[in-house]
Structure formats: C-alpha cells, structure tokens
Amino acid sequence: MTRSEPGLPAKPHRFSSLLDRPVTMHIHQMLRHTLKFRPLQVRRVERLTPHMQRVVFTGDDLDSFVSASPDDHVKLFFPNSAGEIVTPVLGEHGPEYPPGREYSPMRDYTSRHHDASGKELTIDFVLHGEGPASLWARRPNPVSASVPEARVARSWSPATSIATC
C-alpha cells in the first residue's frame, strides 16, 4: 500500500508493515464470580481533587476477592436512613430484602486497585449531588462512619488468543 501526493513520488504508507502481519483472533468471555458479601473498614482516605475522593478499604475477606479484569465492578451497600446496612439474600427470583426493613442503597463501582496480600480495595468516589455514596464519602471523617459492604458482580476476562489468520 502506498500513498502519494500530486507531483511527489509514492511513499509506503506508515502502517503498511502492520497490514502484512497475521491477525490474532481473540475471544472475550464474561465470568460470573461467586457472590459474597464482604464487610469492609476504611483504612485511609485521600482527597484527589475538590470533587474526587479516594477511599482505601480493608477487610479479612479481601484476600479471596477476585478482580480478573480492569472493568470488574463491585456493588457497595451504604447505610440506610437508620444508619443500618441491610443487604439482600439471593432468592429464587433474584435479590430479596428482609420484609419490613428499609434496604440499603446500592451503587456499582469499578475498583481502582486491589491488593490481595495487603487486603485492600481502592475505590474513587465522585463527590457530586446528594446521592448516598457522595454523602457517605463527603463526610468529614468517613473512617469513623458506617462502612459499605461490597461484592463482586461480574468480570470480563482478558482477551485469550485462539488463532492467527
């Protein structure tokens, strides 16, 4: 493949060597992790910008936490209006909450970093509006506040090479 401009000799296209190489085919597959509620504690908090706060969580169950892909997400459950964390159980038709109790608001987050040996999970919170996560993260000292529980919802595995053409 060449390119040329009027009046100039033809030059090889800068990507021509890439076009001559074999193409590797990839398969992406979705993994469903076993759902497990993990009680967390806040280890440290860092204000990144006026509207972004990093929270590093810790918990004994984080050593078995799996994050196979950079787009994994966790569900965090925040205290309800009574300050309780009320989580569902997985029933026959999906999540079921205890009757007569206000359930905890839940939000999805992509973890910024997971350190299995240090039992740490880092999540960045955008501080906007009056949502439960923003209000929780904006507190002057979230370390002493009720702490969310987390569970891994799903994961996409990294691409696996299967063939070259």
Topology:
Layout: E1 2-3, E2 11-12, H1 16-19, E3 24-27, E4 30-31, E5 38-39, E6 41-49, E7 52-58, E8 73-77, E9 89-91, E10 94-96, E11 106-110, E12 113-115, E13 120-126, H2 132-138, E14 149-156, E15 160-164
Description:
The protein is mainly beta and 165 residues long. The protein has a single domain, classed as Elongation Factor Tu (Ef-tu), domain 3, CATH 2.40.30. It is built from 2 helices and 15 strands. The protein has helices at 16-19, 132-138; strands at 2-3, 11-12, 24-27, 30-31, 38-39, 41-49, 52-58, 73-77, 89-91, 94-96, 106-110, 113-115, 120-126, 149-156, 160-164. The strands form 5 sheets. Strands 4, 5, 8, 11 and 14 form a 5-stranded antiparallel β-sheet that branches. A 4-stranded antiparallel β-sheet has the order 6-7-13-12. Strands 1-2 form a two-stranded antiparallel sheet. It is elongated, with a radius of gyration of 23 Å. The model is unreliable at 151-165 (pLDDT under 50).
In the CATH classification, which architecture applies?
A: Beta Barrel
Q: Given this structure, which CATH class is correct?
A: Mainly Beta
* Radius of gyration from CA coordinates: 23 Å
Q: Label the overall shape.
A: elongated
Amount of helix: under 10%
- N-C termini distance: 20 Å
In the predicted model, the low-confidence regions spanning at least 5 consecutive residues are 151-165
Derived from helix and strand composition plus strand pairing, the structural class reads mainly beta
CATH topology group: Elongation Factor Tu (Ef-tu), domain 3
Strand content: 35-45%
What's the mean pLDDT score?
Answer: 74
H-E order: EEHEEEEEEEEEEEHEE
Please tally the helical runs, counting DSSP H or I stretches of 4 or more residues.
2
